[in-house]
Amino acid sequence: MFERVARLLASSGSTIAFTGAGISAESGIPTFRGKDGLWKNYKAEELATPEAFGRNPKLVWDFYRWRMGLILKARPNPAHYALAELERLGILTAVITQNVDDLHREAGSKNVIELHGNIFQVRCSSCPYREDLKESGRLEEFLSMKGLPKCPECGSLLRPDVVWFGEALPRDALERAFGLAEKADIVLVIGTSGAVYPAAYIPYIVNERGGRVIEVNVERSGITPIADVFIRGKAGEVLPHIVELVREVVR
Ligand code: OAD
Ligand code: ZN
To answer: What residues flank ligand 1, with Cβ below 6 Å?
Structure first.
């Protein structure tokens, strides 16, 4: 099975990856719906909706600051590096991710499309102000802040620049992702439950246009019914193995 996947990848004209929380699980970042998933222990509607932020911004900020701290300590794992390597080999066109953790870029992936935002970016809840906390050097300040962060332009509350339930995805990212999916002949679906739309349309678009869906997950997902190949296993173990075989084929 691994050899077949390697041959398919090596002969593909355009492969994209579609990733979810499972690819970062081995980096120590909790998933949402799996065992010990965040939404098993916390209520999403109290922490990840615009209404929750309106009602109790302190609770929402405490939750995001806790996650920022966790994510800041996390390093990319072999699965992230394997995708960066596939891009260098000229096989992978883009990584389309639902993750907000920045680990694909840290691992060296260049073309990363973030469908659900980035946890290290904040924006104003009422004006167009945006800030990248890694670039502005204010990450530590945010993590240790006791009160609520205010917009330097207009004084309104700043919020995490991530997509909450009930909110639209960033239009530019979604259009680029759908555009790539329409042209892809392979999508590698890694570590996602495929439960959240519109992101989860991506493998369906590839499938409908006649492309192949290759899935890596520790268990079956909402995408598995349309997967041409389903590899059950940990992303951090399966992907480096595939890359090794791809290297042998392209050599
Ligand atoms: P989920 O938590 O829904 O799914 C994680 C998936 O990863 C599950 O299918 C697990 O079986 C799989 N998994 C766990 N460990 C793995 C490993 N080591 N290797 C491979 N697979 C593994 O996470 P997402 O599908 O990313 O949205 O969730 C989608 C969206 O729901 C998130 O982006 C977030 C959440 O609410 C927003 O924040 C808007
Ligand atoms: Zn503002």
So the answer is: 20-22, 25-26, 31-34, 37, 48, 98, 116, 162-163, 191-193, 195-196, 216-219, 221, 234-235
> Could you identify the residue written with the tokens 């992978």?
92
Q: At what angle do helices 2-10 and 235-250 cross, to 10 degrees?
A: 60
Identify the CATH class of 2-29+76-116+168-250: alpha beta
**84 CA distance to ligand 1 centroid (A)?**
20
Pairing status of strand 15-19 against strand 212-217 = unpaired
Interval 129-185: pLDDT, tens: 999 999 999 999 999 998 999 999 999 999 999 999 999 999 999 999 999 999 999
The fold for domain 38-73+122-162 equals SIR2/SIRT2 'Small Domain' (3.30.1600)
DSSP 8-state secondary structure symbol assigned to residue 127: S
| 115 Cα to the center of ligand 2, angstroms | 23
- Tell me the per-residue pLDDT of 209-236, one tens digit each, with 9 for 90 and over: 999 999 999 999 999 999 999 999 999 9
Residue intervals of the chain classified under CATH 3.40.50.1220 are: 2-29+76-116+168-250
What's the whole-model pTM score? 0.97
Measured over the CA atoms of residue 54, residue 57, residue 63 and residue 65, the dihedral's sign is positive
